[in-house]
Amino acid sequence: MALPDDPDTRLIDRLVARDERAFNELVRSYEGRIVRLLTRMVGNEEEAKDLAQDVFVQVFKAVGTFRGDSKFSTWLYRIAVNLCKNRVKYLRVRHANEREELDSVTEKSLGDARPAGGQGLGRPDEQMAGKQVERIVQVAIQELEPSFRECLVLRDVEELSYEEIEQITGLPAGTVKSRIHRARAMLREKVERELGEKIR
Amino acid sequence: MTDPQQPKDAEVEDAESADESGPPSSRDPMAALLKRSFEAPAAKKAAPSILGGVQRRIRKRSRGKFFADGWSTSDARVSHALIAGAMLLILVLSYFALGPVGVQ
């Protein structure tokens, strides 16, 4: 389980009472995780930071509605995932999802990493090759359907339990599991196609 | 997702459920590669805080009701110590300037 420790009830009480300093504490505790999660989801760090600010604004507005049915961190992740979904939709409609950061890197790295004739990664610099593989993965995951990507990131990168993912996404257990499984398979296929070799 | 080659939902769920113990990266090479790919860039940089931006947005949307002044809510202890020191200094100077020092 990778969800961070929850703030204690006193901090939550202070948040509900609109204590600005309590809110500052909360932002400082969670901003790193939220920005990282959103960067993985939207594939662009600047977009993720902008979105993360909206997440905390939403938390500030809605903290009074937190009933304690789930962990506070689960509730926070749910807000982040929902806002992220809306942003991805908006960006798609506007054709603004250029993924500049990753794309620019990838164009270059794919050219370098893609082995001639698809016969495995080029040597001798294995470390460099490893980085290129990582970039290929970062780009490939952005090509997945957002609803699949969301489940896969929460499970494989954030290492949340299925139960937590169900609570965050609002999806039934079976759907969560099947999306994770299929997303992993699709990602594997994309990465193997780019690499020209099997992942073992 | 309607490809007949694809496994049925129940099979997929079973395969996932069988894997529930421990982090996925310890079992599945694709999951391990995915985790590694995202951990590397995250570990490299310590991003600057977004707190200031969040405070600004709340201030704007609440029309100044919350986080009304930028400096007092910045959570930086140094600014409080500086203000306290400056106030103390002003008090001491005022005391010596206005008080009956050396009058006999």
List the helices and strands and how they pair.
The complex is a heterodimer of chains A (200) and B (104).
Chain A: H1 9-16, H2 20-42, H3 45-62, H4 72-93, H5 100-113, H6 126-142, H7 146-157, H8 162-169, H9 173-195
Helix pairs in contact in A: 1-2, 2-3, 2-4, 3-4, 4-8, 5-6, 6-9, 7-9
Chain B: H1 9-17, H2 29-44, H3 51-61, H4 77-98
Annotation keywords:
heterodimer; A: 200 residues; mainly alpha; Rna Polymerase Sigma Factor, Chain: A; Arc Repressor Mutant, subunit A; B: 104 residues; 4 helices; 0% strand; elongated
Question: How would you characterize the overall build of this protein?
Answer:
The complex is a heterodimer of chains A (200) and B (104). Chain A is an all-alpha fold. Chain A has two domains: 1-104, Rna Polymerase Sigma Factor, Chain: A; 113-200, Arc Repressor Mutant, subunit A. Chain A is 72% helix and 0% strand. Chain A has helices spanning 9-16, 20-42, 45-62, 72-93, 100-113, 126-142, 146-157, 162-169, 173-195. The two termini of chain A are 25 Å apart. Chain B is elongated, with a radius of gyration of 30 Å. Chain B is an all-alpha fold. Chain B has four helices and no strands. Classes of the chains: A mainly alpha (200), B mainly alpha (104). Chains A and B meet through α2, α3, α6, α7 and α9 of A and α1, α2 and α3 of B.
